[in-house]
Amino acid sequence: MTNALEILDPLKTKDWDGWLVTHQESTIFHSSPWAKVLVESYGYKPLYFTTGVNVNPAVLLPVMEVSSVLTGTRGVSLPFTDSCKVLFPRTSSAMDIRGSVVHYGRRAGWKFIELRDEALFNDQDQFACSFYLHHLDLPVDPQEYFHRLKHGTRTSVNKAKREGVKIVVTESTEAVEGFYRLNCLTRKKHGLPPQPLRFFRKVHEHIISKGLGFVIEARFRDRAVAAAVCFHFGQNAIMKYAAYDYTYQRVRPNNLLVWETVRWYAEHGFKRLSFGRSDMKNEGLRRFKKGWDLTEQLLNYYKFDLKLNRLITNSHPFIERSPQVLSKLPIPVLRLVGGILYKHMG
């Protein structure tokens, strides 16, 4: 099959999502709405390697071409995507799929190829960087699941209820804007600039407003003090972005937010909820996620240097290596930094 894969643009392919939803492992990240968000926010070029949408099951490796004067031209599967599984039948060869992408990348003049699925590699292959990935196989009975949780997790949820924290699930533009306010606070605390507001507006336009996601807010005294942006497609969902105002930590809004997200997806018949990736150094976040009885696995990213013809380790962008510097900057400046640099990070 080497070099035989067809390259399609999901934005120009008829019934892309109707075909895709038949795959049990398909997620919002394989879909055309997510492709639209990336293309319209950052100008990336979609190149989705597949055997064609009329074959079932079909190979699918989504790639975006990122052209940057700062970081070079490269293929990424996929930018700003926690995990991007390749959808392919067992009879397909991972080496054949990789070979098709490498062959295209050489002709297109790419510097690198970045892939985020271990199925394309073996245990001896060198990975660029690693994260933790957590997910929950959603329970049939949410209340039974709740009673299985650790005492501390259940106590925090109940405390939020006693304090009067209320949960609102909404698809409104105003909620996206409210989430962005909280996201700026959270990113500043961690020494990272926020993604541009236009990115989240595109998320609302192409995903949330189409019934493929929502904003869930934890409100305390009529003020949103924590919020998350969730996506869903087929049987799978993800809590993609989460943020909160740290001055309200004592009322435990995050705990109630997570519980109500789990309950919503379980009651609406979804099978799996991803909690996204966690930096391996962020033990606090990892402990929080462990409190929800999640499945944890290592998530490796791979970076193939086309000039050197080998896998290499990652060199982190400046904004990921300078949290102490960036955390001291005011939010308007951080927003400006994010607006300039995120396109190049891909």
What CATH calls the topology of the largest domain is Aminopeptidase
The CA-CA distance between the termini, in Å, is 29 Å
State the CATH architecture of the largest domain: 3-Layer(aba) Sandwich
- Counting DSSP H or I runs of 4 or more residues, the number of helices is 12
Descriptors for this entry?
alpha+beta, Aminopeptidase, globular
Summarize the structure.
This protein has twelve helices and 13 strands.
Explained architecture:
This protein is an alpha+beta fold. The chain has two domains: 6-130 and 299-345, Aminopeptidase (3-Layer(aba) Sandwich), CATH 3.40.630; 133-298, 3-Layer(aba) Sandwich (Aminopeptidase), CATH 3.40.630.30. Helix content is 36%, strand content 25%. The chain has twelve helices and 13 strands. It has helices spanning 16-20, 32-42, 94-108, 142-148, 151-162, 173-189, 197-206, 253-267, 283-290, 318-321, 323-326, 331-345, and strands at 6-8, 45-50, 60-66, 74-77, 112-115, 129-137, 166-170, 213-220, 223-233, 236-244, 272-279, 295-305, 310-312. Strands 1, 2, 3, 4, 5, 6, 7, 8, 9, 10, 11, 12 and 13 form a 13-stranded mixed sheet that branches. Strand 3 and strand 4 form a beta hairpin. Helix 2 (32-42) packs antiparallel against helix 7 (197-206), helix 5 packs across helix 8 and helix 6 (173-189) packs antiparallel against helix 7 (197-206). It is globular and about 60 Å long. The two termini are 29 Å apart. 42% of the residues are buried. The mean pLDDT is 92.
